[in-house]
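User: For a reading group we're discussing how well predicted structures match intuition. Take Kinase-like domain-containing protein. Before you show the prediction, I'll give you the sequence so everyone sees exactly what went in.
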Amino acid sequence: MAVSPLPTRSPSTTLSTSNTAFRLKGVAARSPGNAPSPQILQNADRELTEQLNDNVRQRYMKDKKLGEGTYAIVYLGHLRTEPSSLVAIKKIKVNAEYKDGLSMDAIREVKYLQELSHPNIIALHDVFSSKDQNLNLVLEYLPLGDLEMLIKDGNIHYGAADVKAWMGMLARGVWFCHENFILHRDIKPNNLLIATDGEVKLADFGLARSFADPYLNMTHQVITRWYRPPELLYGARQYSGAVDIWSMGIVFAELLLRVPFVAGNSDLDQITKICEAFGTPTEENWPGVTKLPTYIPADKGHIVPVQGRDFFLRQFPTAGPVGADLLMSMCTLNPSKRSTACQVLQHRWWFTEPRPTNKEDLPRKAGGSQKMGSDLTRKGGELDDSPFKDTARQLDFNAM
Ligand code: AMP
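Assistant: Thanks. Here is the predicted 3D structure of Kinase-like domain-containing protein, as C-alpha cells, for the group to look at:
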C-alpha cells in the first residue's frame, strides 16, 4: 500500500485562520491586564481572513466563459503576473436553498480536491471568494476536452493501445482516490478531462465522499445511471470502492464500442439491461443480493446465466482475451468479487501487447494540439516547476 501523500496546504486555501488572527491582532487589541474581548477577536479574525482572501483573488484574472454545469460556471483565467499560466476558475453559483448558500457538491469538491494530489486527478490550486460572495475554485486548466468528446467524434480514430493508455490513467487516478479512502461516485467519460500533454484527469468531485467507515450508511442515489453498479440500483446503503470500479468497467466497454454499453432510460430499465448483458444476480452468484432494499426478483424463466470470458471476448473483440478478462473482473455483479483498483493495476493486460500509447501521441480533438499547445507554457500534471508551486499541494506519487 502506498503512503498517502501529505498535502501541504497553502495559506491561500486555508479558509479558517483563527489562530494566526489571534496572534497578530489579539496582542494589539489587549489592554494591560485585560484579555481581548471575543468581539475584538472575531473582528480581527474576519479582517485577516478577508486580507488573505484578497491576496489570493488578486493573483488571478478571469477571462472568457468556458462552460457551465449544474452548480458552477467555469471561466478561463490566468495568473496576473504570468498571463501565459492558464487556469480554469470554477465559480460556484450561490443558491439560497442550500445551507450557507453553497451546495454540498461545492463543499465536497473543495474538501476532497484539497486532500488529493496526483497526476491523474485535477489539481485545485486555490480557493477564494469574490466580491459577490461567490466561491471560486482555481483549477488546473485542461483544454483538450474530455473522453466523451473523443468517443463521440467519428473523425477521431483510435485503437487498442490508445484505450489501454486512457484506461491506465483512469485506473491510477481511481486507485489513488481509494488509497486515500475517497470514493468518486461519478466516474463517466464526461468527467475525464484531458490535459495539453494528453494526460487524462479525474474531475468533478461533487459527489465524492470518504468511505473510511465500512458500516456507515451512504446514499445509493449517486453515479450517473448508465455507469451505476447493480448494488446501488438495488438500494445498497453500505458499499465500497467497488462502485467506482463498476463505472470504470463501463467506461472501458464504452471506449471499446464507442457507444454506451448499458444505457437504461430509467433505474428499472438500467438493472434490466445489466441483467440481460451480464447475467441475473441470484443468491448463488451474489450471496445477500435478495436482501438489498430494492432487489427485484427475476421471473423464473428469465434468469440469464452469469456471462463468462467467451461472452466478453465476443462482445469486445478489440480488447483481446486478456483485456476481456480484465473487463469481466471489473463488471462482476457481486461487488465483493469485483476487482479492486489495486488488482486492476496489477492485471497482466497492461503488460501484454499492444503497449499503451505514449500520452503525447494519443489522438486528440481536432485543432486541439498545436493551437492549445502553443498557448501554454505549462503541461498538465507538472506542478512542481509551475508558477503554482507555492500554492499547489506537493506531488508525492512514486508508488505503482
Ligand atoms: P463542470 O461544471 O465541471 O461540468 O464544467 C462545465 C464545463 O466547463 C465543462 O463541460 C468543460 O467544458 C469546462 N471545464 C470544466 N472544468 C474545466 C477545466 N479544468 N479546464 C477546462 N475546461 C473546463
